[in-house]
Design goal:
CATH class of the largest domain: Alpha Beta
CATH architecture of the largest domain: 3-Layer(aba) Sandwich
Strand content: 15-25%
CATH topology of the largest domain: Rossmann fold
Helix content: 25-40%
Number of domains: 3
Distance between the termini: 50 Å
CATH superfamily of the largest domain: Vaccinia Virus protein VP39
Number of helices: 11
Shape: globular
Structural class: alpha/beta
Amino acid sequence: MINKDTLLFGSFAKVAGNAGCRLFNTAFNYCNINAIYKSFSVNNIKEVVSAAKTLNFKGFAVSMPFKIEILKYVDEISEDVKKIGAANTIINTDGYLTAHNTDFLAAREFLSKYKDSFNHLYILGNGGYAAAVKYAAINLGFKFTIITRKNWNVITTIRDSLIYNCTPVMNDIDDSNIYIDCLADTKTGKKLASIQASHQFVLYTNREFPHEMSEYSSHLKMFNINKTVFKYISRYCADRKNVSFLDVGGQEGGRGNKIVGRSKKLGVDYVNMDLDVKKETSKLIRGDICSCPQIPDESYDIVFSHNVFEHLKTPWTAAEECIRINKKGGLNIHITPFSWHYHPLPVDCFRYTHTGLIMLFENSGKVKNLLTGYSMRARRGNRLGGSSKYIDGGLDRVPVDEMGGWRENWLVFYIGYRK
């Protein structure tokens, strides 16, 4: 229970996230520590320092783009920070601020397992995080090459190497490489974030991080699907022009779908394919994703569907077609129910787990899983069903009891990279 003795911790970034809140608040609760952790979106790091002192934050994290600027406003910097020139963790001792860098500690720990296999490292980027990785590489005895915007095209030529991405850019990396991605929603990014947070926890509390917490061994990773999927789409579009986007089963051109709406604002070349199309246009085509030979191979950069795969009679052939019409280097993105009430349009055949979607798309060997996960944002919504022209009697009504109708609504998503 929060009271006058509750300790305050937090993080400050241009755009705040929820991962740190989940991790630290769960750890505080697990360890019976009277503390809370809150993330904040900020624009002025100087004002943050003043506020943190006034509110007596015991410690806080800073993220891009403040890792270098924060050094102007602290009282002391650790030896590691002196050599790196950037910090991500600040400890407040009665108004005296000390800067630390746990990004370096996480990078060193993560890279150490590759020390016997590689002696050279490619580092993508030259910001504050890249400086921490560079220092970790030096610490471990790696030779390294820094790749920046000036020589970015070198990335596509690298083979059989160790690569560490320190930028927010999604990159096309050959499968022969070991690729460490710092982005928080990637597999390696999550691991790095967990490692560095465990080091922050020690600085904050003088206690070891409770790695045994079951929350973080769970395979059921929860996301805001709209934000997560759009983040991948926007990254993909950032350095590409004329991105072609096929919305499978979008109904009325994806009207009402937030992901589609935001993607259109990025300027994608949007095409909707549906079974029930009265008049075809260049942007609205008739087709069945289970078999659409009329669409040439490698036609679309992004193949997207939202609540479609549960209605497909042969989802395995649909997955094959999605892969076939996806350009190499493109994205396959699909959102579908894990748990939902029966809703035939015109049929309702399947429910999926994240592993089920991975198996559908990766058996071909042509797609690499980037991210899968779940959303429970609508979990306790009272789904009652409604009218349906596909059911005798016209209704797909859910039996209602004292708890209401259907109240276990989960979505699952898959984002794959076409090799």
